[in-house]
Structure prediction request, 669 residues.
Amino acid sequence: MPKKRTPQEQSTDPAAHQMLIKAEELGISTAFSRADAMAPCNIGSAGMCCKICGMGPCRLVKDGQVGVCGATIDTIQARNLVRGIAAGSAAHSDHGRDMAFTLKAVANGTAEGYMIRDVAKLRIVAEKYDIPIKDRSPEEIADELADLFISQFGQQRGEVAPTRLAPEKRQKIWREQNVIPRGIDREVVEALHRTHMGDDQDPVHILNHAIRTSLADGWGGSMIATDVSDILFGTPAPLLGSANLGVLKDDMVNVVVHGHEPTLSEMIVAASQDPEIIEYAKKAGAKGVNLAGICCTANEILMRQGVPAAGNFLHQELSIMTGAVEAMVVDVQCIMQALVGLAENFHTKVITTSPKVKLKGATHIEFEEGKALTIAKNILKEAIDNYKNRGDITIPENQEKLVPGFSHEYINYMLGGSYRSSFRPLNDAIMSGRIRGVAAVVGCNNPRSQQDYLHNHVTRELLKQDVLIVETGCGAIAAAKVGLLLGEAGLEQVGPGLREVCETIGIPPVLHMGSCVDNTRILTVLTQMVEDGGLGDDISDIPAVGLAPEWMSEKALAIGTYCVASGAYVIFGGSSPISGMPDKMADSGILSEYISSGWEELYGGKLEFEPDVDELIRKTLEHIDKKRAALGLPVYDADRFGKGGDDRMKELESLSLAERKVALYGVEG
Prediction:
C-alpha cells in the first residue's frame, strides 16, 4: 500500500495545503489522495504491456519473453511510445486546426465578436509563406493564410509548410533522414497504422516515425496554433498579472475557465466586460464577474488580457473546493473526470463547451464561433444565476504578482528596440559568459510528485548558475506562484552575470512564454539565435536544454520528441515509459539508449528520463558547458564578473571619486 502523504508532502504551495486539509476534513478525494491510494502498475509504466490486439494483453516480465505474436520487449515499448507521441501530436495539432478554421471564419465575417487584432503579425506570417500582402485587406490575406494552414492537415505529399522556417542545416538533416512531415494528419494516421498488430516490428524504424509524427506537431499544428492565436487575439507583450487561488473574490461571481482553447476563453473575457453582464451580476447581489484561469487556458488569457491564473493542472479540483466558484467552464485537454463528482459537494456548475469533450453529469453548452459572444454571455448568465446558491467559502489569501507575455516578438524588441531588434545581445551575453546557457522548464504537474517542487527547484538551481530560464504551461504557473516571474524577484539567488543582464534589460530571470502549445515560440527563438550569429549554424549548437520535470501527458512526449528532432537535449523527470526492468531482462534499456545516443547521432538532440532531480540538474549544466566548449566560448566562471548591476552601483555610490577610479579601472588619481 502506498504511503499516505501529508499536504506538505503533496504540494509545495501553501494555498494547496489549505485546500487539501479541507478535503481531508470533508472526506473528499483529490488527485493527490487518489495517487496515494493507487500504486502505479510497474509493468505498464515501463512500457512492457501490449494490448493492441485481442490475443493479449501480453505482459513481458522475464528475460527472453515475447508476446503471443512473438513481439519482443523493444518492439512493444517502441509501439507504446509512438502511440503516445501520436496522441499528443493529435491533441495539439487538432487545436491548431480549430484555430485555422476560426481564422477562416473571421476573414469571411462569420465569427461573431472576433476580429484580427495583430495585422502586423498577419502580414509578417503571410510573407513567410509567399502570400501576397501588397494592396490587400487584412481579411483577404487572412483568408488565403487560413486556406494554406487548413491544407496542411490533409496534405498527402510534399512538406508541411512551417518546416521551411527552421534553420537551413536543420531542414537538410530532416530531408536526409526522410522525416519531414508530409501532412499533419497523415503522420498521425501512419503512426497508428504502423503500430497495429502485424505491422512495423523494427523498433528503430518505428521510432524514426516518432520523429516525423512529432515534427508534424511542433513544426506544423502547434506552430499554426500559436501564430493564429497571435493574429486573432494579439501577440503577447509583458503586463502585470497575478496567480494562485487568492485571485478568487468573495464578493464577485467567480468563473474559472480551464482547458486549452483561446477562442472560448477570449470571448468569455469580452462578455464579462459587457455592461449587460455586469448589471446582471449586480442584480444577483455580486459586484461583477471575476474570471480566473486554470492550466493552459490560464496562460492564454493571462498573457494577453491580464486575467489572473487560479493555478496550474493540480489546482482544478482545489479551486472548486474553495466554495467560491460559480462555474468551471472547460473545453479540451487536461480536464479531470472527477470534477463533476467533486462539484456535487459544493454549488459549482461544471460546464463543458466542446463538441469533442463531454463529462457525464456536467452541463453542456456547445460553443460555436458563429454565435461566440452570445454563447459566452449565456454561459456567464448560468454562472451568475448560481451565485445565490453559494455556501461557506474558503479562499486562501495566497497570490503572487507576475509579468507574463514574453513572446518571441517582444524578446526581439526588448533586446534592440524598434529599429535594432535582434537576438544578438542575448547571443553576446552567452558568448561572453554572463549567461551560461538557456533552459526551457516546461510541462505538466504530476500528483505522484510534490506539486511544483521539481519545477521550482530545478529553476532556482539553474538560476544560481547563470542559466536564463524560459517557461511555458503549468511549469510557468508554478514559477509564478512563488514570485519568480517578477523582475526583482529572486535576483539575490541569481548568478552575477545573469543578474546584470536582467537588471540592464529590465526582465525577470524567468521568462513566461505562454501555454504548452507555445513551446513552438521557443523553437522560433532558438532559430533566430542561430540566424543572428555567434552560436553555431543550427539549434543543436546552442548551449540550451529542455526540461519537463513533472511530466504526465502524452502531449509532453510529443513536445519532447519534436524538440529532440530540432536538435535539443531534452530531459524528463520522473519515470520512463520505456525503462523496462534491467535486473530481469537483458533487452531492457535498448530503446532508452537509442533515443539518447542514437537520436543524438542522427539529429544532434537526445531524449532522456532522469528520476533524480540533482542528476537532472548536473546533466543540464554538463551539456551546456559541452556546447560552450564546442563553440570555443570561454569556460563558464561564476566569479568572472563578480558583483554587477544594481548591487555594484550601490557599492560604487558609497565610494569617493578616487576610490571609484580604483574600483573601476584599477588606477589611482
Remarks:
- The mean pLDDT is 93.
- Residues 403-574+611-630 form a domain with the Rossmann fold fold (CATH 3.40.50.2030).
- The chain has 26 helices and 16 strands.
- The radius of gyration is 25 Å.
